Amino acid sequence: MSIQSLKTYLPENTSGYLKNWFSNYYIHIKITRGRSSKLGDYRKLPDNSHEITINSTLAPPLFFFVLTHELAHLIAFEKYGRRISPHGNEWKITFGRMLLESLEVYDDDLKPIIVKFSKSPKANFMASPALVRYFHVETQEDNLQFIERLQKGDLFIFRNEKYLLEGLIKKNYLCKNLDTGRQYSFKPLARVEKCS
């Protein structure tokens, strides 16, 4: 897939960065259906070309962010060698530099989040609550919300099971499964359906 054919998925003014980052490599880019397990991935193919897959369902700024993440893998491996850790210091330095280099692509309210994130990039998008909050758009159709928006005593459904929010333990929420009586810890950005 060419940079030109990616334009429908990307914010404006990204082609210069991509041409610069892609220039020395032969890369297969596959646009996939939405996957809940990952937003994108990178791997080197047996013919020494590279493959990046990215979910088609991502908003353009998030699509560019994920593409930058995956390209950082390629560039770090090519620069430092294949023995580096996939999300180690070499990747963090590469990804952080690329994010700052392309900062103008992002909206003004997202730029401070990107700058802060670039100082120590996380391997998993979900490990950055500020990014998750920024890119998550709740819709009427899914009725899901972050558990951190609920109050103590609220009932909610998670994976077809009903829970009671009992309170906060450090940064997580202690919740009781009403069918089994067992208690579980939920991260603040778990998406749940509040019971009315």
List the helices and strands and how they pair.
Elements: H1 3-6, H2 15-22, E1 27-32, E2 40-44, E3 50-55, H3 60-80, H4 89-101, H5 111-118, H6 129-135, E4 144-146, E5 155-158, E6 161-169, E7 172-177, E8 183-186, E9 191-194
Parallel strand pairs: 1-3
Antiparallel strand pairs: 2-3, 4-9, 5-6, 5-9, 6-7, 7-8
Helix pairs in contact: 3-4, 4-5
Uncertain runs: 137-141
**How many whole angstroms does the radius of gyration measure?**
19 Å
The overall strand count is 9
Number of helical regions? 6
CATH class of the largest domain: Alpha Beta
Q: For the report, how would you describe the main beta sheet?
A: 6 strands, antiparallel
Number of domains: 2
Q: Output the structural class.
A: alpha+beta
Percent in strands: 15-25%
Describe the overall structure.
- The protein is of the alpha+beta class.
- It has 2 domains: 3-135, 2-Layer Sandwich (Zincin-like), CATH 3.30.2010; 144-194, SH3 type barrels.
- Helix content is 31%, strand content 24%.
- The chain is built from 6 helices and 9 strands, in the order H-H-E-E-E-H-H-H-H-E-E-E-E-E-E.
- It has helices at 3-6, 15-22, 60-80, 89-101, 111-118, 129-135; strands at residues 27-32, 40-44, 50-55, 144-146, 155-158, 161-169, 172-177, 183-186, 191-194.
- The strands form 2 sheets. A 6-stranded antiparallel β-sheet has the order 4-9-5-6-7-8, with no helix packed on it.
- Helix 3 (60-80) crosses helix 4.
- The radius of gyration is 19 Å and the shape is elongated.
- Residues 48-94 form the SprT-like domain.
- This is Protein SprT.
- It comes from Chryseobacterium fistulae.
- Pfam families: SprT-like.
